[in-house]
Every structure is written in C-alpha cells, then in structure tokens.
Amino acid sequence: MDSQHKTPIQGQDQHIVENNELNIWEATIPVIILISLLFYNIIFVEDQEWFGTYTNQIILLFGAVVAAIVGFLNKVTLLTMFAEVWENLKSVFVPILILLLVGALAGTWLISGVIPAMVYYGLKILSPSIFLPASVVICALISIATGSSWTTSATVGIALIGIGTALGINSGMIAGAVISGAYFGDKMSPLSDTTNLAPAMAGTDLFTHIRYMTITTIPTIVITLLVFFLISWNLETTGKADLSDLLMSIDATFNISPVLFIVPITVIILILLKTKPLLSLSIGVILAIVFAFIFQTDILNQLSDSKLSSAIQAVITDVQIETDNSKLNDLFSAGGMMGMLWTILLIICAMVFGGVMDGIGALSRITKSLLKLFHTVFGLFASTVVSCLALNVTASDQYLAIVVPGKMYAKAFKDKGLAPENLSRTLEDSGTVTSVLVPWNTCGAYQSSVLGVDTMHYFGYAVFNWLSPFTTLLFAAFRIKIKELKSTK
C-alpha cells in the first residue's frame, strides 16, 4: 500500500455511481478544465502563485464546481454528490493522521539525532558511485518487508535524501530512486493492500497475482537499476574529499551514536509485526523525544529555554538546526505537523473533486467509453492502462484507479478468454505505480511532501513507475505470457 486508507474488502465494496443521462463529452468537461488549469499553473505561472500558496487546491475545488454544474444539468441531486464526497473524505481520514505523524516524526527524528546519525553513517558507507542503485535496492527490500511505500519513504527515504544531498547528488534523482524501489517492493509484497486489492477486483488469488506480476515487474526493475547505474557512472558529486568536513560538522553539532538506530529499528519491527501505522509512527515519535532528552540536550537548549517546549516545537512547528556547514543547514530542518498542512489540503480538495466526479457518474461513463474504443486483446489491455492513468489524474486516488477499472473490465477479460491475473497485473502496472507521478494524487502529494522534492522534479527519475505501463503494453502487444482461461469443454 501507499496510503493504507482502505482495506482490500472496503475497496472491493466501493460503490460506483452510474448515470445514463450523462454523455462522454459532458463527463470529460471537468477533466479537461482541471487538467488545463493545472498544466497552465505548473508550466507557465512563476512559483505557482496564481492564486497564492494554495493555487492547486483552488483549481481542484473549481473543477469540482464545474463537475457539480454538469451533474445538476443531468438530474443529479446535491445530496448524491455530497454523499460521494463524504465517502471520499472518510477514506482519507487515516492517511491525514499518518501525514501529521510523519511531520512529527521528521521533526523529532531530527532533534533526537536519528536523521543526522543516518546521514553520518550513510556518508561513511555509501559510495557516490553506487548510491542511486543501492537506494533502489534498499527501499525495495524495506517496502517488501513492510508492504508500504509510504512507510519506506518516511523512514529510509528521508535518510537517503539526506545522505545523497550531502554527497551533492541531485535530489530529484535520489527521490526517483527511492520511489522506484519503494513502489517495486509495495507492488510485490503480500502485505500491501493494493497487492491484495487488485486480485480481489479481477477475481484471482493473491499469490497467483504476485507470481504473474513478476513477468513484467522483474524486467522493469532490472532496466531501472541499469538506468541508475548508468546515471551513477556519469555523475559528478562532491566526492569523498568533501565528506570529512561534513562528518566533522555533524559530529560537532549532534551527539552521534549507533544507539540512536534503536528508534527507526523499533518502528520497522512494529510494522513487520503488522502493528497499525498510526501506533507504529506514534511510538516512533515518543521514542525520538525520549532519545532527544537523553542524547541531544544541547540541541534542545539551543531551540528553546525549555527542553519540553523544544520537543513540542519539533512535533508541531518548524525546526531549524544551525551547523558550521551551509550544506547541512537546509538538510537539518523540518516542518513538523504544520509543514504537512499544504499537502493535507491538497488531498482534501482532490477527494472533493473525485467525489463529485464519481457522484455525477462521470468516472463510470469515462471508463465505459474507453472500453468501447477497443476490440482486440491488445486494445483491451491498452484501455485498462488508459483508464487507470485517467483515474489517477481525475479521481486523485490509486484505490479508485484499481477498483473502477477492475469492476468495469473483469467481464471483458473473461469474454476475451483471458485469465483474471492478466487484469490484476495490469491494474497494478498502471494503477498502483503511476499514482505517485500525479502531483495532486494522494500518493504524489504525500511522497513529494515527505521527501521534500517536487513531483515534477522526480518524475523523470522515477523510472520504475513510468516504465511499468509501457512494459505491460509491450508484453500484451507481443502476447508474451498472456495467460488464457482453460477451456471447460
């Protein structure tokens, strides 16, 4: 999973509204307006301050208003639209709490010395020549073990961003490597709820689905690793010559000790034991505060007159720890819970837009229209991919990008004589992994906020994520490992 805001059963029971009064052109009007405004804002408006800090949020709400007007003109009641918006908002309650805790985690892990310790020892171990591919592998392993790309980014991902930045590596490259590895692991982990949801939608079982995914996923991750090896070989970094100064600055500012790793290790163990994410992250925050009082009294005194006030500041508001090295000052800063408000508002506005679109029947109409465009086996795969991508953009939620096409295409795959694992694999190859590439999608908003790297900045380097849909289409075009249903005759 990524946001962990629906269980597979809840996702499977997702209600999809149909509206026979609505035609495809009317259904796409809000989408066209939304994408046009967002594109114009991102590409042409300097610093994204068209309407101030919350430009994207306002555009999403404007798109929801347009969708509501289309709904009124097609006999959809306001109550119906509100009901779907409310269902969407309920579904992101837990992820919003997780985001707040991640903000608190970043602040407390900074003042406790956990993040500086990760950077310190990481600089000693990870060579710039293998840093990017190593980041892919590390995040893949953690994500397979935890079943969550969100948790991977919030723990190991943050540390890798810090280490790579200190080495002078482009932050977009690092974020792309982290996200590629995290989503590979998320996709292949039996603990991931999207990995459970996709086969539930398609009508196959979990382990058949995972085995069948390896056919397209392994080549994609191999190509991803090769790309990052090539980038690393041609990468100019600050090199080891500058590392001694960085290490001395960290050591002079913080009390660095391997004992600090007890905090992240505890959180990872709790997640492996299937402890609820909210509880795991809360324990991570509390442990970090305890360790800050034990190991970093000078830092706490530097931030405020009261050690307790410093800890509360780290949890709620921004923290900036000054060192004698300018390269580290930006790295050793955190926004606390307040730093997550922009992302939370973006998610809420995206859910409002997606809820109205679902409430007026637009999501169902768009998917059905796409299905009618294709009549060949390859066309069916292509239609599924396009539907998943479109829903990640319009509904702003990876669960809907799996649930809606899953429900709509299950019969079409069966009618073509194709085994259900073809559909489940395609849903993951195009629904799960591409959600992080859309800035206003819950996954894109979360990852860019946690890693501190804009979506457009890491987009090109998230090789595994954008390559996966092409791989699944390539296999479909050449009928490679396309399993057919066994004849009952």
Q: What's the arrangement of secondary structure elements?
A:
Layout lengths: L7 H5 L11 H21 L10 H19 L4 H14 L1 H19 L2 H12 L5 H16 L2 H18 L4 H18 L4 H10 L3 H28 L9 H11 L8 H11 L4 H19 L1 H7 L3 H10 L2 E2 L5 H4 L3 E2 L6 H19 L2 H11 L4 H18 L3 H18 L4 H13 L9 H10 L3 H4 L4 H15 L12
Antiparallel strand pairs: 1-2
Helix pairs in contact: 2-3, 2-19, 3-18, 4-18, 5-14, 5-16, 6-8, 6-12, 7-8, 7-9, 7-11, 8-9, 8-23, 9-11, 10-21, 10-22, 11-22, 11-25, 13-14, 15-16, 18-23, 19-20, 19-21, 20-21, 20-22, 20-25, 21-22, 22-25
Describe this structure in words.
The protein is an all-alpha fold and 489 residues long. The protein folds into two domains: 8-93 and 341-477, no CATH class; 105-338, no CATH class. 72% of the residues lie in helices and 1% in strands. The protein has 25 helices and two strands. It has a two-stranded antiparallel ribbon with strand order 1-2. Helix 11 (206-233) crosses helix 25 (463-477), helix 19 packs parallel to helix 21 (398-415) and helix 20 (377-394) runs antiparallel to helix 21 (398-415). The longest helix has 28 residues, at 206-233.
